[in-house]
Amino acid sequence: MAVDAARQGQAVGRRTIQFSCLRTAKGMIMKILGSCQCKKVQYEAAQIDGPLWNCFCQTCRKSHAADHNTAARVKSEDFKITSGENSLRSYESTPGKLRWFCETCGTHVYAERPAQPGAVVVRAGTFDTDPGVVAESNVWVSHAKPWLQHDASKPSHDEFP
């Protein structure tokens, strides 16, 4: 099935990017979906509310066991767990911030601040389809660790050699 990545959106205060915007050759709109590694937890989002960003904070680094996390803000009304909601477990990584993980595979799917119920922060690494945008900024670089930086002068491989 051929897919046309025609992005839709409108600028209203914050830039809003239409998230369910991929069209098939027949003109049908496909939602962009996401899931955990074991596929027990699955979700969909109607749109991303603003640009993606790379977060280098200590809690993202530890939660993802990686140098950074790429994230997307999604309005709460645009985010829906479609399966596996009972498999989600939360951890309060900082006061008032809950990180939601799959209990089976440990994937960090999204985060939220219940006291600020208008949005969730979805982990872009859990997207199963291309949102058509890339991260536009790096945040919390004061937490970045020098031993985790990608050194382009070293040999790089598309796969494990």
Number of H- or I-type helical stretches: 1
Helix and strand composition category = mainly beta
Q: Could you give a short account of the major beta sheet?
A: 7 strands, mixed
Number of strands: 16
- Portion of residues in beta strands equals 35-45%
Question: Which strand order does the major sheet show?
Answer: 12-13-14-15-10-9-16
Mean pLDDT value: 82
Tell the overall outline.
globular
Task: Enumerate the spans where pLDDT stays under 50 for 5 or more consecutive residues.
Answer: 1-30
Query: What are the secondary-structure elements, in order, as H or E?
Result: EEEEEEEEEHEEEEEEE
- Assembly context of the chains: single chain
Cα end-to-end separation:
32 Å
What integer value in Å does the Rg equal? 17 Å
Q: What is the percent of helical residues?
A: under 10%
3D architecture notes:
Helix content is 4%, strand content 42%. The chain is mainly β and 161 residues long. The strands form four sheets. It has a seven-stranded mixed β-sheet, with helices on one face. The protein has a three-stranded antiparallel β-sheet with strand order 1-4-5, with no helix packed on it. The protein has a three-stranded antiparallel β-sheet with strand order 2-3-8, with no helix packed on it. The protein is globular and about 45 Å long.
